[in-house]
Protein: 3-isopropylmalate dehydrogenase
Amino acid sequence: MTNKIAILPGDGIGTEIVAEAVKVLDFLNADMALGLEFEYGLIGGAAYDAHGTPFPEQTLALAKQADAILLGAVGGYKWESLDIAVRPEKGLLGLRSELQLFANLRPAILYPQLAAASTLKPEVVAGLDIMIIRELTGGIYFGQPRGVRLLENGEKQGYNTLVYSESEIRRIAHVAFQTAQKRQGRLCSVDKANVLECTELWRQVVTEIGKQYYPEVGLSHLYVDNAAMQLVRAPKQFDVLVTSNMFGDILSDISAMLTGSIGMLPSASLDAANKGMYEPIHGSAPDIAGKGIANPLATILSVAMMLRYTFNRSDAAGRIEQAVNAALNANIRTADIYSDGMQKVSTCAMGDAVISALQEGA
Ligand code: NAD
Ligand code: IPM
Ligand code: MN
Structure:
């Protein structure tokens, strides 16, 4: 069996952070004889520059035949004025949709060493370990009709459509309940059922799935505005959160800050067979791209998720997580998680610190 990984660095800091994650993969591949093979492809702005499209046929083919995908990030100032149909983000959205990667797992864990890096009080975030499950291939991101039209009065009107079918809600609900079963057994579904019919259906279907298949999981519901507030007020009340595509996008960036930095949050986007794409939740950070200061840990931790979910190598995944912990224990910090008394290092030096920790027994 081959264990083929498609590597799509993308744009901006994408190339810098993926290089560090590949360094870690290379090390473990040799050290544990994982038998992983890598093949690189273009996505996003880099693909647009080379082929005139952010999502070339050959990238789709590469992603389809790979067992897993590692993605950096897409987007940047350079492509912001392009037609939305060929913007870098379309490449990422196309991959998610074509591969039906509907379940996006975004764990927000506070490493105790970073309590001082969070903008929240240490007692609010200490011990934080929540899992956000974001529906990734439906909702307003993909709903039709969409566009900008000309009204009779001569002004333009922009429109998008929020749609979810029962089957789309059911499949993400199953993933969420099963995730909660393996954790503390608590699931909070986030919607806007007081205003939007589509999310009223979401609430009904999630409730039915819970009653029918997972009566032992404690299910609660929150409106998204309250959920956003609760995440900042008392985030440890949550175990697993499940929500729609756009709400999940926003709530996961909020949660990232609970852990000290958006540079710490990995993600897995899975299909029904656990084939997955793995990427940090942050973007291409054009404001710091090329400076060698981005935090590569979210991407390195995404590789750990890949080894656990797609390749069933929890042993290797655990080693990466321990090595990250050890690098933080050694007071190594990129700028985004820096605090007084720590050693501020580059992207590359942070990758090296993780490798050193692996060499030293993590
Ligand atoms: P962003 O996540 O790229 O950056 C937000 C802020 O966080 C910036 O100040 C950035 O410097 C900082 N940041 C992000 N990652 C960091 C890291 N690893 N280390 C240190 N600091 C980090 O969001 P944005 O600025 O809104 O978007 C920039 C571009 O990225 C846009 O084109 C957007 O569409 C794209 N984007 C892509 C993805 C993705 O590929 N998955 C995700 C989000 C945004
Ligand atoms: C993310 C990003 C993407 C999203 C963009 C770049 C399309 O913000 O992965 O969170 O909105 O899903
Ligand atoms: Mn996002």
In short: The first helix runs from residue 13 to 31. Residues 110-260 form a domain with the Isopropylmalate Dehydrogenase fold (CATH 3.40.718.10).
